[in-house]
Amino acid sequence: MLVTASICFGLLAIAGGAGYYIYTLLHVDPIVVASDASETDRIAAVAGWLDDQFEKHRFNGGVLIIRDGRVLLSKACGYTDNTKTHRIDDHTAFRLASVSKQFTAAGVLRLAEMGLLDLDDSVAEHLENFSFENVSVRHLLNQTSGIPDEYMSLAEEHRETAGDILTISTAVELVMWHSKSDYAPGDATEYSNTNYVLLAGVIEAVSGMSFERFMSEELFQPLGMNDTRVWNLLSDQRSPNQASDFDQIDDDRTPIEPTWLDGVAGDGAVFSSLNDFVIWDRFWYGNSRVSNTLLEQAFDRPKLKDGSRSDYGFGWVVERKRQWHNGAWLGANTYIVRYPKTRSCLVVLDNSSNLRLDSIADEIEEALKPIFSDD
């Protein structure tokens, strides 16, 4: 009996210790701000809180807050890589992970604006030997294609024939050769990185350019987004202001290097800065590259065949008052949310494999409710 009790006590202690460890990995302090605090005081509270989280090794990145076109806060805390050699600033380009999907969507919208495709075109019109019937470009954008999210697992299964670095074209071929639909297009919504790699393949096929070049020449350069680019293992070189990813536990930092899968793009691989996100937020209210008629479709909630509505637009999760997306890959953890009624935006970027990123974003958003709200 004593042995059994001691074993149980030991197991409980281990479970408790594991629970506490997980708690410390996810925990952030609350932002203390009075309910009647002014806009200035709220922004100051967030800025001071971010400094405190950085000092406690709970945040390494940048935060941007916009209201009605005004930058209320552009705050950088931490280092561009594990060496602590260079500090982050407004022009540091962070890996965006899945926040990149809205950039890919914008590339598709640019093609539509140029008259080179229609959003309701069959994907088979643009990708030779595309094997999924009745899948449209819009289905890929809305995550309603029925194509399973398995390009990475397929690449690993076929590593011997996939090459040293996985490319967009190889990923597309693997999906066409080896995937089968989970459901008919438009029946359901299933979040899929594969859909957005296929969209990058469509952009390359239609434009006759690499995805990286098309995005640069047709979007980033004309918009003046000088810190923004598509970068993967096939790119010529890193930008001098590009952040690198690392693991951080307390003050211990270990670099995280891209894997052979990081030759693809579309589902990720965009890097951007706080400075350029000011331009990017403004892009969605109207710009010279994509008409408002097309832009507005990015925030439509698609109607499924059963009559229900999905909440996934074109690289955005669309709610009644908010449009948002997050991302995580390698050491990058990212988040953007927009409140169109008040023309408000929050961007949170971190390159330190920060598991607290969602909690950090939630705390900031809660503190800024009176600024973002249209009530």
Question: What is the structure about, briefly put?
Answer:
The chain is of the alpha+beta class. It is 38% helix and 14% strand.
Can you walk through the features of this model?
There is one protein chain. With 375 residues, the chain is α+β, with helices and mostly antiparallel strands. The protein has a single domain, classed as Beta-lactamase. Helix content is 38%, strand content 14%. The strands form 3 sheets. The chain has a 6-stranded antiparallel beta sheet with strand order 2-1-11-10-9-8, with helices on both faces. Helix 7 crosses helix 8. The model has no long low-confidence stretch (mean pLDDT 94). This is Penicillin-binding protein 4.
Task: Name a few traits of the molecule.
single chain; 375 residues; alpha+beta; Beta-lactamase; 3-stranded antiparallel beta sheet; globular
Which helices and strands appear, and what pairs or packs with what?
Blueprint: H1 2-26, H2 39-55, E1 61-67, E2 70-77, E3 94-95, H3 101-113, H4 137-142, H5 151-157, H6 159-162, H7 168-178, H8 193-207, H9 211-223, E4 229-230, E5 246-249, E6 252-255, E7 270-272, H10 274-283, H11 292-297, E8 317-318, E9 323-329, E10 332-339, E11 344-350, H12 357-367, H13 369-372
Antiparallel strand pairs: 1-2, 1-11, 3-7, 4-7, 5-6, 8-9, 9-10, 10-11
Helix pairs in contact: 3-8, 3-9, 5-7, 7-8
